[in-house]
Amino acid sequence: MKLNKELMKGSTTMLVLNLLKLEDMYGYQMISELKKRSDETFTLQEGTLYPILHALENQDCITSFWVDTEAGRRRKYYKITKDGLKLLEEKQREWQFYTSTVNKMIGGACFE
Amino acid sequence: MNSMITDFLESVCARIKYKKIHEEITAELNEHIVELVGVYKEQGLGEDEAIQMALEQMGDPNDIGIKLHNQYKPKTEWSLLGLVALLVTLGGVIMAVCTQNEAKAIFDNLNFYIARYLGYLPVGIIILSIFYFSDYMKLKQLSMPIYIGTILAIIITILFGRRLNGTPWLTFGGVGVAPKSYAAALFLIAFAGFIEKYKGQGVFAIVKLVMLCIVSMVMLLMVPSLAMTFVLGVGYAVMLTVAIVRHNFKGKIYQYFAMLYGVGFAILTFVVVTLKPHQSKRFTLFLNAGALDKSGDGFVNMMIGKWLSASQLIGKANIDMSYPNGYVFPGTSTNFLFVNIIANFGWVAGIALVIIIASFILRMFLVTRKIRNDYGFYLSLSLSTVISLQFIISILVNLNLFPMVEMNMPFISPGATNFVLNMMLAGILLSIWRTNNLIKASKGAIADTQFKFITYEDGKIIINLR
């Protein structure tokens, strides 16, 4: 199903942090993982991802480090911090509350 | 690199005013583009087509650039700038009103202090601006030169300077500079660099740092300036304690505390034992401010006591403060300006001023905690400590709650060197805070966020001395 981009806007930060909670990743990897895990539903744009990554880093929610690959290239990996985990928890709580309230309004399934 | 890719990356960076981040962003985006190109080529596209598709996939370079620029904009710390401006303005007003009596009596010029103030005020503002817009990081490499330079300045002043009331001064064309004004601040600025340099090292690092402390304190003691040596010592103690707690050094915390405070106690004992009689007397005099001892010592303490007890809540004190027959004593325009304020305007004014100063001190330390890179943090800590100590000691002396030392309130008390120096310190502080979000957090950030000195778990308070 094709999604309205506006719907995704609010949760991108949360999705990115959730990916990094699972493992350290670099930009391209995040986009492809997101696509994979959502069965091609979420196609995060590069132009959206990098500003978010830099913003999160400036807030100390993630940190970065460069890694030399075997192919001789250098990749910038990101890693979530304790503050980042806290932010993720907060955003997840927000999301649960928001979706359960909307569901109540439109009479959909309510996940406690 | 392919020219289409270069153009793309240049367009992105063209939107980002903060040039220092260009290299990193270019590298990161380029890697991503290269990977995309690889994928498209695997799907069978030719080199140029692949690049075109990849760049399209990346999005609008202007848009990306603007969004990234928004992440790297320097932010002015308005609360601090405002408080500094307030203190400077108040200083001018206070000086205009409170110093006229003494100025007329000593210099036969009502506006002596005010005139000088108007002279060094613009200099101070210019100095603050210069440091505000400069890159404070450059001070890190200058740590050792600053340290050694200050030691040399002290030596030269002691050997060749002119003495005024026992304090040596170096004069340059009518302007005098005394080591006791600037040495402590400069030593602490250098020390921030030293602490950061020894990050991650073990016990030997603390030994070296303590040696640096001792040498500089001995130099300052030889000036002689007991008061500033005390300030310097407290500054060093604060910085080392915070560094140890933040795990700046490898190994267990308690061993460093044992070393540090063991040495500190030894130094204190040494200093106390070698104090000259008149110096040790200062320590006891302020305790009985009412009594005048036979040799006339404690005169000022007693005078302060008289002024304070005669002061009203609002308005002028019930005591004759006029020259030459009233209860006058030297320094009411300089060291004892705070007593002067209370005596002329009342306790309410004094308390109001203390509240403003307390907010300033609190704000300085609160903002220091948010500094993300190690050097900036230690530098901010050292400068906040120096400025705060000057205020605290000066006020305590004025209330007869501290041994009599010569200490002026930053920004408020008259004195060109002092004013310009504190403006410089404030400028550096504001520069650190302004660029906080631009500089990457130090690698220690991960360890910091996972390690807490004091935690509260399961109803227990846990203090970690690991």
In short:
The complex is a heterodimer of chains A (112) and B (466). Chain A is of the alpha+beta class.
Structure overview:
The complex is a heterodimer of chains A (112) and B (466). Helices cover 58% and strands 14% of the residues of chain A. With 112 residues, chain A is an alpha+beta fold. Chain A has a three-stranded antiparallel β-sheet with strand order 1-3-2. The mean pLDDT of chain A is 88. The two termini of chain B are 50 Å apart. By secondary structure, chain B is mostly helical. Chain B has a three-stranded antiparallel β-sheet. Chain B has a two-stranded antiparallel sheet with strand order 4-5. In chain B, 39% of the residues are buried. Chain B has helices at residues 3-14, 22-42, 47-58, 61-71, 78-98, 100-107, 112-133, 138-141, 143-160, 179-197, 203-221, 226-245, 253-273, 277-285, 299-310, 337-345, 347-369, 374-398, 416-434, 444-450, and strands at 162-164, 167-172, 175-177, 454-457, 460-463. The chains are: A alpha+beta (112), B mainly alpha (466).
Supply the key terms:
heterodimer, A: 112 residues, 3 strands, globular, B: 466 residues, mainly alpha, two-stranded antiparallel sheet, 20 helices
N-to-C terminal Cα separation of chain B, in Å?
50 Å
Strand order within the widest beta sheet of chain B = 1-2-3
Number of helices of chain A: 5
Element order of chain A: H for helix, E for strand: HHEHHEEH
Q: Name the strands of the widest sheet of chain A in spatial order.
A: 1-3-2
Biggest sheet features of chain B:
3 strands, antiparallel
Task: List low-pLDDT spans of chain B.
Answer: 444-452
Oligomer: heterodimer
SSE ordering of chain B:
HHHHHHHHHEEEHHHHHHHHHHHEE
The CA-CA distance between the termini of chain A, in Å, is 25 Å
Strand-helix topology:
The complex is a heterodimer of chains A (112) and B (466).
Chain A: H1 5-9, H2 12-22, E1 25-26, H3 27-37, H4 46-58, E2 62-68, E3 74-80, H5 82-106
Antiparallel strand pairs in A: 1-3, 2-3
Helix pairs in contact in A: 2-5
Chain B: H1 3-14, H2 22-42, H3 47-58, H4 61-71, H5 78-98, H6 100-107, H7 112-133, H8 138-141, H9 143-160, E1 162-164, E2 167-172, E3 175-177, H10 179-197, H11 203-221, H12 226-245, H13 253-273, H14 277-285, H15 299-310, H16 337-345, H17 347-369, H18 374-398, H19 416-434, H20 444-450, E4 454-457, E5 460-463
Antiparallel strand pairs in B: 1-2, 2-3, 4-5
